[in-house]
Amino acid sequence: MERGTLQHVPRSIKSSTDMQFKDQFLQKLKYAKRIVFFTGAGISAESGIATFRGADGIWNKMKPEELANFDAFMKNPDLVWEWYQHRRDIIHKVQPNTGHFAIAEFEKFYDVTVVTQNIDNLHKRAGSSKIYELHGNIERNYCVDCYESYNTPNFELTNTAPRCEKCGGLVRPDVVWFGEMLPQDELESGDKAAAWSDICFVVGTSAVVYPAAYIPMSAKKGGSYVVEINLERTELSRSVDYSIYGKSGEILPQILEQAKNLRTDL
């Protein structure tokens, strides 16, 4: 495919122990310089993190929309803060999986950018160095009044909403809530990286929620070879160059091995 065209030849394969990848994809992998990984909840689920609506216990009785918004926080900050503490506890008990580690190791061979919709910090923990977080990061917090940052592990977390040491304002999680805009600098930087990429991997997300869904669209319009890695077909499947169905923790390490062999031959 020539850069700038939108034509594609969709083809899908099933995950297996020893995968056979499409020749066109291997050629792209061999000569690519810039790679973007656009990741969603699917890759984190393989680490044991339930989706946003999958919280257990008492939280099943409440809708996420009733907790993850600014008005709810200001009305009952301790309740919302406790919910995010519950989510932090879950995240702190899990580890990055082989998919996260493979993405980080791709940096040995390419200029890699991670654009993620996840707030769990697992990409950073796995070693990725260039990450744009479209929905924020649960490990970060800030004051709603003066915007002073309060980040873990140096910030002591309790089950009640903390107050800012400088101005006394409420400290909230640095995540994007319902009704809030995505951080424009992160979105614009991720979009630019996608547009300039040679390969864009869409991992563990159906990529249908905007504005985040513009990332694979920008990659496609820029002439990038778009590869979808998901457990099953999604609405995005009809628009990508190549779909690989299976667990990203199994597929990405095998793609990495192919890249190692291909790049050694250059």
In short:
The chain is 34% helix and 17% strand. The protein is α/β, with parallel strands linked by helices and 266 residues long. The chain has a 7-stranded parallel β-sheet with strand order 1-9-8-7-2-3-4, with helices on both faces. A two-stranded antiparallel ribbon has the order 5-6.
Describe the structure.
This protein has ten helices and nine strands. Helix 1 (23-31) crosses helix 10, helix 6 (98-105) runs parallel beside helix 10 (248-264) and helix 8 (184-196) packs parallel to helix 9. The strands form two sheets. The protein has a seven-stranded parallel β-sheet with strand order 1-9-8-7-2-3-4, sandwiched between helices. The protein has a two-stranded antiparallel sheet with strand order 5-6. Residues 1-16 and 53-58 have low confidence and may be disordered. It starts with 11 loop residues before the first strand and ends with a helix. The radius of gyration is 19 Å and the shape is elongated. It has two domains: 1-49 and 97-135 and 182-266, Rossmann fold; 50-93 and 140-175, SIR2/SIRT2 'Small Domain' (2-Layer Sandwich). The chain is α/β, with parallel strands linked by helices and 266 residues long. 34% of the residues lie in helices and 17% in strands.
